Amino acid sequence: MTTSTEPSTTKSQAPATPAPTPATQAPTPSPTSVDSPTKEPAGEVHHVEGTVTMEVADPEAACKSDTFLGAFKTTAAGLSTSVSADDVEVACTVLTRRLSGESRRLAGNIELAYRIPLSSADAASKLVTAIVDMPADTLTKAINEALKDTGFTVTVTGKSVPTTIVVTLTSTTTEDLPIEENPNESHARGPAVLGSAVVAVVAATLMFSQ
Questions:
Q1: Coil, strand or helix: which one is 143?
Q2: Rounded-to-integer distance, Cα 74 and Cα 72, Å
Q3: What digits encode the pLDDT tens for the residues 13-37?
Q4: Boundaries of every domain in the chain
Q5: What is the pLDDT of residues 123-150, one digit of tens each?
Q6: Are 177 and 116 in contact (CB under 8 A)?
Q7: Cβ neighbours for 41, distance < 8 A, ≥ 6 positions apart
Q8: Which of helix, strand or coil describes residue 106?
Q9: If DSSP states are collapsed to H, E and C, what string results for 12-63?
Q10: By the 8 A CB rule, do 28 and 115 touch?
Q11: What is the CA radius of gyration of the chain?
C-alpha cells in the first residue's frame, strides 16, 4: 500500500520592522522676563510765580511790546543770580484804561503774571524773599531803568502773593505749566513750558510787602 506524502508548505515570515524612534525634541527654553525700564526722577524745578500791577501810559501797547515785556523779564531775572531773562515767562493783561488829559492817550493799569524757574528750593526761597522785601517804589525804579530809552515808563501799584511750585520731572516729562491769564484780554509772552508726568505741589506762600 503506497502512502503519498504531500510536502508541507511553510510560509516564512519577514522579520518585524521595529517602530521608528521618535525624534528627540530640544527643550523649550523658559521665556526670559524683561523688566521695563524704571523711570528715574530727572530732578526738580522750583517755579516762583506771582503778579505785579502797574500803571502805564498805554496799556495795550505795553502788553503787546516785546521790548516792554523784555525789560520786565530783565528786572525779574536780576533778583536771582541763577536766572537769565530768557528763563522768565510773562503774561500781560490790560486791567483798566482811562483817557489821559495831558497826552489824550488811554492810560491805565496792567497786570504782569510771571513765572521764574529755579533749580533748588534754596534758590527759590531766596528769590521769594528778595521779591517780598522789595518796596514798590524800588521795583518801579528798577523797571524804569530797564525801560530807559524805550518810550515806556511805569509806576508799580501793587504786588500779589508769591507762590513756589515744585515740579518733579522724570525722564519722559516735558514742561507744560501755562500761566493763567484773563480770558477776556491778555497778551502772553514766553516759551511754552512741562506733560502728564508732572507732579506740582504748592510748597510755600508768602505775602508781598506793599
A1: helix
A2: 5
A3: 555 555 656 555 656 655 555 554 4
A4: 41-205
A5: 999 999 999 999 999 999 999 999 999 9
A6: no
A7: 168, 169, 170
A8: strand
A9: CCCCCCCCCCCCCCCCCCCCCCCCCCCCCEEEEEEEEEEEEEEEECCHHHHH
A10: no
A11: 40
Cell of 205: 506762600
What is the separation of C-alpha 2 from the centre of its chain, rounded to a whole number of angstroms?
124
Top-confidence residue, 206 or 136: 136
Phi then psi for residue 98, to 5 deg, are: -150, 150
CB-neighbour burial class of residue 192 (10 A; exposed 0-12, middle 13-18, buried 19+): exposed
Cβ-count burial of 170 within 10 angstroms (0-12 exposed, 13-18 middle, 19+ buried)?
middle
Q: Which residues contact 30 (CB under 8 A, 6 or more apart)?
A: none
**Cell (9 digits) for 188:** 502772553
